[in-house]
Design goal:
The chain is of the alpha/beta class and about 325 residues long. The protein is built from 8 helices and 16 strands. It starts with a strand and ends in a 5-residue tail after the last strand. The relative contact order is 0.11.
Length: about 325
C-alpha cells in the first residue's frame, strides 16, 4: 500500500522503519522540528533523517493545517496514513484524505490515558498494565475506533524506562498489523467506551515536585515514573533541591508529620513520613534509597542524610 507517515521522535522513527520494512511505499513523511522541551529531547531518534536515508520527501511542521500539507498529502494518493507521536491537532482536511483512513498509534490502553506522557501518568497512578493502541483517527484526540490493542503488565519494580522499552517494541508490529487489517476493507472497528476515557496534559517540572501528603506508594510510583533520562522527582531539604532517584515503601507504619526524616531503614535507606493522615500512624513510610544534589552528586540516602530529624518539603525554605 501507499502509506503517508506523520511521526516524531523514536516512536515515529520505529513506526516509519516498520512500515518500510513491511514493503509499503511511503511517498511522504511529515514530522515536527527539533525541540528543546526536556521531554522531547529524550528518545529523540530523527524521523527526518530516516526518511532522507530512504529518499522520501519530508515536510517539517509544528502544526500540519496549512494548504501545502493538504495538497502534498492529496498528491500522495495514499491508501492509508499512519500517525505516531504527532504532538498537535491534525485537521480532518488532512487525515480524511487517504482512501482507507488514518491509523493513529498511541502508547496507552485507550480510552484511558489519551493525550501526553501516558506511560508516566499510568505508572504514577499504579496501573496494573500499559500498552499500545492502533485506532482510526477522528476529530478528537485519541478517540477513534480501536483497530488493534496490545497490553503488557506493570511489574512491582518496573520503571518508566522499562515500560517505554516494552511498549516501543510494539509500535512497529502493531502498525503493520493495523495496516493489514485496513487493507481487508473492514470498517467494523471497536468504538471506544467514552465513559472510561481520560485525557492527560504534557508533563512539566511542576509535575515532578514531591507532595509529602501523597501516600508513600504514590510517591514511590512518581519516583520510578521519572527515572533517568526523564527529569527526576524532587523535593527540598532546607533550601537544597534533592532529586530522588530510587525509593520504596516500608512494610511497617510510620506516624507523624508528612516530610519528617524519621529513621534509617534496615535495607540501607532512610524513611520519610508521608500521607495526609500520617498523624494517625497507620501509613507506610517512603524509603529513599538514592538522591542527586543540584551539583550532580549521586549519593546513597544514608550518605546524604547523616543524621535523622528535620523535614523534606515541596518548596525551598525561605
Amino acid at each position: 500500500m501507499r502509506v503517508v507517515v506523520f511521526g516524531y521522535m523514536t516512536w515515529g522513527h520505529r513506526t516509519l522503519d516498520a512500515v518500510l520494512a513491511a514493503g509499503h511505499d511511503v511517498p511522504l513523511v511529515v514530522t515536527h522540528p527539533e525541540s528543546d522541551n526536556p521531554y522531547e529531547t529524550i528518545f529523540n531518534d530523527s524521523v527526518a533523517e530516516l526518511a532522507a536515508k530512504h529518499a522520501i520527501p519530508v515536510l517539517v511542521r509544528n502544526r500540519a493545517d496549512d494548504e501545502e500539507v493538504v495538497e502534498r498529502v492529496r498528491a500522495a494518493h495514499a491508501d492509508a496514513m499512519v500517525v505516531a507521536n504527532w504532538r498537535t491537532w491534525l485537521s480532518p482536511a488532512v487525515f480524511s484524505l487517504p482512501r482507507l483512513g488514518t491509523l493513529n498509534v498511541h502508547d496507552a490502553l485507550l480510552p484511558a490515558y489519551a493525550g501526553f506522557a501516558p506511560l508516566n501518568w499510568a505508572l504514577i497512578n499504579g496501573e496494573p498494565e500499559v500498552g499500545v493502541t492502533a485506532h482510526m483517527m477522528n476529530g478528537d484526540f485519541d478517540a477513534g475506533d480501536i483497530v488493534v490493542q496490545w497490553a503488557t503488565p506493570v511489574g512491582a519494580e518496573d520503571t518508566v524506562v522499562d515500560l517505554f522499552e516494552r511498549t516501543l517494541a510494539m509500535f512497529g508490529p502493531i502498525t503493520v498489523a493495523g495496516l493489514e487489517r485496513l487493507a481487508t476493507g473492514r470498517t467494523d472497528w471497536q468504538p471506544q467506551d467514552r465513559s472510561r476515557a481520560s485525557y492527560f496534559h504534557r508533563r512539566s517540572d511542576e509535575d515532578n515536585r514531591i507532595d509529602w501528603s501523597w501516600p508513600a506508594r504514590d510517591i514511590a510510583n512518581l519516583v520510578r515514573a521519572q527515572v533517568d533520562p526523564y527529569p527526576n522527582a524532587y523535593c527540598f531539604h532546607g533550601s537544597t533541591r534533592l532529586r530522588v532517584l530510587a525509593a520504596g515503601v516500608t512494610d511497617a507504619p510510620y506516624g507523624g508529620t508528612p516530610g519528617r526524616i524519621f529513621v534509617r531503614d534496615g535495607a540501607g535507606g532512610v524513611v520519610v513520613v508521608s500521607g495526609a493522615d500520617a498523624r494517625r500512624g497507620r501509613n507506610p513510610g517512603l524509603v529513599i534509597h538514592r538522591v542527586r544534589t543540584d551539583d550532580g552528586q549521586d549519593l546513597a540516602a544514608t550518605e546524604y542524610f547523616t543524621r535523622m530529624g528535620g523535614y523534606l518539603t515541596s518548596h525551598p525554605a525561605p
